[in-house]
Amino acid sequence: MNNRVLPLMDARRAAPMPALGKIVGVGIGVDQRGRQMRDLRISITDRCNFRCTYCMPKTVFGRDYPFLPRDELLSFEEIARVARIFVANGVNKIRLTGGEPLLRRNIEHLVEMLAAIPGLELTLTTNGSLLARKARSLRDAGLQRVTVSLDALDDLTFRKMNDVDFPVAQVLEGIAAAADVGLAPLKVNMVVKRSTNDHAILPMARYFRAANASPGHIVRFIEYMDVGSSNGWKLDEVVPSAEVVQLISAELPLIAVDPNYPGEVAERWRYRDGGGEIGVISSVTQAFCASCTRARLSTDGSLYTCLFAQRGHDLRSLLRSGQSDEAVSASLAALWSARNDNYSEQRTAETSALKKVEMSYIGG
Ligand code: SAM
Ligand code: SF4
Ligand code: SF4
User: Fold this and answer.
1) What is the DSSP letter of 75?
2) For position 294, what pLDDT does the model report?
3) Ligand 2 centroid – CA 55 distance (Å)
């Protein structure tokens, strides 16, 4: 266990692990700020074939970087068990992420196991590099939707940002393949960094509008965030979402749209002419902590209650110590009821400089 991970409970009083039957939740209540637990993000690998400069810069994630050994990763069976426990306790949406989730071998098998859980919305975020090859098998395994990250349409900018010289065309092929097999509505995530890819905002908006890309994909413009401690984040590189909306609306008029559900992270805008919609995610300029219902599970089975946390909680040891599902649920309930995170509401230069968990461990 690394020293930034806290035990979830005393594992010395372990009972034998029961067979996976129907799991009965303990009825997890609200946290210290009145928020329920509704979404779970699961990072299934800490590895990635890209080195996006804002996420896994080569200077830190170089050739000698010590990625996790296999036995430290949660197995598919462990992930499926955790998922069932979370769903029994109120989670209704799970997103697989990473690192690059499509690098995890036999991911389709995991998707199949998770898709069998009733009442669960199952989705995945990917850099799209392997999507053209895998869209069909993921869909067949039961994946419902996919979000593809793409930071520019011009090759020069995109290759520079992924820093492994990966071409835009292959990601676009992945997006087309996902749309073809019905992984829809498809969302495209673009992290906007001033003076790096802000010139790409309008081309992205134009390209993915319904008028051009039938049936149109929802581009979500994400404010560049101070996640982890590796990306050298600076506030003046953040492009506020209000500026993005203003820029697009000047050419393609936009109207604000109500959220799909309370606590939706992306603020929705639709084109006045019926050309579909966009979203903006404003973690820096308009914190949405008040409605944050997310828990995050790292590749090595630590549970984080905030994207910017400095510590996780050791769920893996609990799972591997033979605790019953009810005991794990009770630990989760205790953890959630003590949760008081609101990092984005109190971000300062000092908090930005703290040693926080890396994005590739807990996945966006
Ligand atoms: N590799 C996959 C991908 O890129 O889609 C999944 C993992 S990635 C960590 C998840 C999301 O986090 C991506 O959309 C990525 O653009 C976003 N992200 C990573 N670092 C970020 C940062 N510093 N600020 C804002 N978003 C970031
Ligand atoms: Fe990899 Fe995704 Fe991070 Fe880029 S954003 S380095 S694709 S994990
Ligand atoms: Fe949730 Fe933490 Fe982000 Fe606030 S800063 S919205 S609590 S993940």
Assistant:
1) P
2) 96
3) 6
Among 315, 317, 318, 311, smallest CA distance to 355 is for: 311
Cis upstream peptide for 101 (omega within 30°): no
Q: Which residues have CB under 8 Å from 233's CB, separation 6+? A: 54, 224, 225, 226, 227, 352
CA–CA separation, 41 and 364 (whole Å): 8
| Domain extent listing, the chain | 39-362
- The dihedral through the CA atoms of 83, 87, 90, 96 has a sign that is positive
Cα(56) to ligand 2 centroid in Å equals 7
Cα 57 versus chain centre, distance: 18
Using the atom order of ligand 1, give the atom closest to the CA of residue 227: 23
For the domain spanning 39-362, the CATH number is: 3.20.20.70
Instruction: State the distance from the centre of ligand 3 to the C-alpha of 210, rounded, in angstroms.
Output: 32
pTM over 0.90: yes
> CB burial class (10 A; 0-12, 13-18, 19+) of residue 40?
buried
Q: In whole angstroms, give the CA distance from residue 277 to residue 210.
A: 8
Strand 145-149 relative to strand 121-126: parallel, antiparallel, unpaired? parallel
Within 8 A by CB and 6+ apart from 210, the residues are: 216, 271, 274, 275, 276
Q: Say if ligand 3 is within 6 A of residue 306 CB.
A: yes
| Residues 119-173 pLDDT 10s | 999 999 999 999 999 999 999 999 999 999 999 999 999 999 999 999 999 999 9
